[in-house]
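Entry 12.
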Amino acid sequence: MNIQHCWETYQKAELLLAEGHWPEAYHLFDNVLHYIPEHINTSVYQDDIEPCQFVALVSTLRDTSIAQSKVLMRMGRQQCAFHVMNQCYCQLQFISIEDSPLVIKTLSIINKYSEDMVSHISEFCASQRSAQWMIELETLQRSHHYFSQIKSASGKQTVRDVLN
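Predicted 3D structure (tokens):
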């Protein structure tokens, strides 16, 4: 699925979700989540990708992950919902430590989206009211701390707001 088709599929899934057709939205979101990570990984080192285009890809990943996790929770599939959010968080963190001009230009947004995912995962884990989920949250928080240390040591913690 090409980038344009990913975007159109995401928009259609959002519309279906708003209309209450969440089982159909689930399948469309699943398709987007299958293809968008590869598009992001491919674009990291491409010279013809503008920062605003890259941010659109990363935003689509984040928004699709959050929407899909909500659908999965409605379906009673909490473990899958957590997995979707965690995968997005991990991809954002690994992108943020790439040594790419595109990543450097969009780092503040990538870091913000990582924080957004930590926030969503934290809310999710707390809402489960289970020791198992609190252990998952603790593991995530440790991971987040270690990524912050890596970024700080490499000088990638600095905020840059250059999009074009």
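Annotation: The CA atoms of residues 127 and 133 lie 9 Å apart. The two ends are 26 Å apart (CA to CA).
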